[in-house]
Amino acid sequence: MPASAALRRPAKIPRATSEQSSRDLLLAAASELMNHRNTIDISLSELATRSKLNSALVKYYFGNKEGLMLALMKRDAAIAIRDLEHLLATPLPPAIKLQRHIAGVIKTFHRSPYLNRLLHAMLDDRSSDTDSAKQIAEFFVKPYVRLQRQLLLQGEKAGVFRKVDSMYFYVSTLGACDLLFNARFTLRSVFRVPRITDRIRDQYIEHVSSMVLQGLVRRSGSGSGSGSGSG
Amino acid sequence: MPASAALRRPAKIPRATSEQSSRDLLLAAASELMNHRNTIDISLSELATRSKLNSALVKYYFGNKEGLMLALMKRDAAIAIRDLEHLLATPLPPAIKLQRHIAGVIKTFHRSPYLNRLLHAMLDDRSSDTDSAKQIAEFFVKPYVRLQRQLLLQGEKAGVFRKVDSMYFYVSTLGACDLLFNARFTLRSVFRVPRITDRIRDQYIEHVSSMVLQGLVRRSGSGSGSGSGSG
Fold first, then answer.
1. What does pTM read for this prediction?
2. Is the predicted pLDDT of residue B9 greater than 70, yes or no?
3. What phi and psi, each to the nearest 5 degrees, are found at residue B126?
4. Do residue A176 and residue B177 have CB atoms under 8 angstroms apart?
5. Which residues of A touch B185 (CB under 8 A)?
6. pLDDT tens-place string over residues A187-210
7. At what angle do helices A19-37 and A44-51 cross, to 10 degrees?
8. Residues of A with CB below 8 A from B216's CB?
9. What is the pLDDT of residue B68?
10. Do B229 and A206 count as a contact with CB atoms less than 8 A apart?
11. Does ipTM exceed 0.90?
12. How many angstroms separate the CA atoms of A33 and A44, rounded?
């Protein structure tokens, strides 16, 4: 077990924990805590209690709490990007890939609601143009959009999808997936839905993927529909 | 010109302005300012300068700035609800009504970006369960959902729409319309789109309404698709 981290900051590193695993433990504790408490507002002391590590390690590994959140998003974004790359390389019909892609997004938001909240907190209009927002654009949004574009191209080449603008596709599909997880108050107060169960998740996957797919499939006489704005 | 307001708070009411129009002027100034400055963070002194009215009138008419924002949303929500009611009563095919409904939502967000931002600021998970959120649910979301449900029923009865869950319909269509106006940083940094032009608005209306409509239209062998969650 490497002791380099312990040598650098001896008083703060817990016994018998490597640098890599302390870092991972903090990330895991942060994600568990945010999902458990249903908020992204967690304190360093809560994090210390949950991880059984000194909260000063957050500063040591991540600079500050925002750095920890960013590292968490990098960890999870890497998984999402890898899964999407894998899906693209799989020999399946484009329509099936599209459905699995939508299912993947909704399942990720359902499993880790904090991800959706962090994306909003870091990317939305009240907080954009920060260094975090720029990093998220680079390590997550750009590769994600590039892979979505490949998926659309696969469908076009197979003659099953009509040509659609990748920005409109990105915004409309992500917006549809997203709002279910960013409208808890509306769901509760208007629709009497206190929480998003597995059943709701699966029905919503069916609803959104069917809508997006039907919007994409090439029909006789439809051609390239989305690109003729009427000024 | 009624002077009742001026009699109650003589020092703060501007000369030759009725209570109703002072109130309206403050609302108009707030909406102009937020659209002009591209933010919902406006100060009472900016509001006073813009409206040429004393900022103490905000307290007088609305209690505080949040009350003013809420009154603004009520004003705009009333217009949106009235338009949707009018559309439902118009003798048009359900598919056309659906397209006009989507176009109406996107045009409203495009014309008044602050509305979208206020909805997020007041309804999203970081600030829900407040009295403002509850009021918005009552005067806007509930009637809006009820009218959407009527639109879906008209289409079902005409045999052109399949049966869909109104919560899934609400969340997916509003989410798709919404994200274009709540992703300015992504649009700028990833898609090199500095602002949402009329052309983009119209193309997006075409994209979303086509997607939603295709997702709704009844096809041979499709039946009632969205309601078979796979656990």
1. 0.84
2. no
3. -85, -10
4. no
5. 123-125, 128-129, 133, 137
6. 999 999 999 999 999 999 999 999
7. 110
8. 211
9. 93
10. yes
11. no
12. 11
